[in-house]
Design brief:
Blueprint lengths: L8 E4 L3 H8 L11 H8 L4 E4 L10 E4 L4 E2 L5 E2 L1 H13 L5 E4 L8 H13 L8 E4 L9 H7 L5 E2 L2 H11 L1
Parallel strand pairs: 1-2, 3-6, 6-7
Antiparallel strand pairs: 4-5, 7-8
Length: 170
């Protein structure tokens, strides 16, 4: 949907098979109405996938949607989020925007995510780079229509981060 709005998109996935399929225009979610048409229209010029964060080092915005699993004691397992944000911090530049879309417990962005990005980038969130969240409000099979029809809720760790997220999703 973002590629369809005219923004160049690089999707990063640790699963090489998913990357290969997307780059070959093979729909990874057949039940998602309209996805095949978007892949056909935008791969490889407006949308491509990779397993390497190095390719994304020239990006200006990072939208993170990774699963948050619950462990055997019903506690959130943040390991996938920690890994994703540690990787982003390695390529983060001054002025970049980072948005968390994964549904997480309150204050996760302002604490855990902010700390990971700051410690691994040497920059300050809200000053050197912008940090925001936009909870996912989609479900498989309806993601494209929901993205286009429902307003996105965005918030940031400060006013300028919120504004940057608003501008990206607009």
């Amino acid at each position: 949907v973002i590629a369809d709005a005219g923004i160049k998109v690089i999707g990063i996935d640790t699963n090489e098979l998913h990357v290969s399929r997307i780059n070959s225009k093979i729909n990874p979610i057949p039940e998602e109405v309209g996805l095949q048409e978007l892949l056909n229209k935008h791969v490889p010029h407006q949308l491509r996938a990779t397993a390497s964060f190095d390719v994304a080092k020239n990006s200006e915005a990072y939208i993170v949607i990774v699963p948050l699993f619950i462990d055997k004691k019903n506690n959130p397992d943040f390991s996938k989020l920690q890994s994703a944000f540690t990787s982003i911090a390695q390529v983060l530049k001054k002025g970049d925007l980072v948005v968390l879309e994964t549904t997480v417990p309150p204050k996760t962005t302002e604490t855990l995510i902010k700390n990971i990005l700051e410690e691994n980038s040497g920059m300050l969130a809200g000053e050197d780079f912008y940090l925001a969240y936009s909870p996912e409000r989609i479900m498989t099979g309806y993601s494209i229509s929901r993205y286009k029809e429902y307003p996105k809720v965005v918030g940031g760790i400060n006013e300028v981060s919120t504004q940057k997220a608003y501008e990206l999703y607009s």
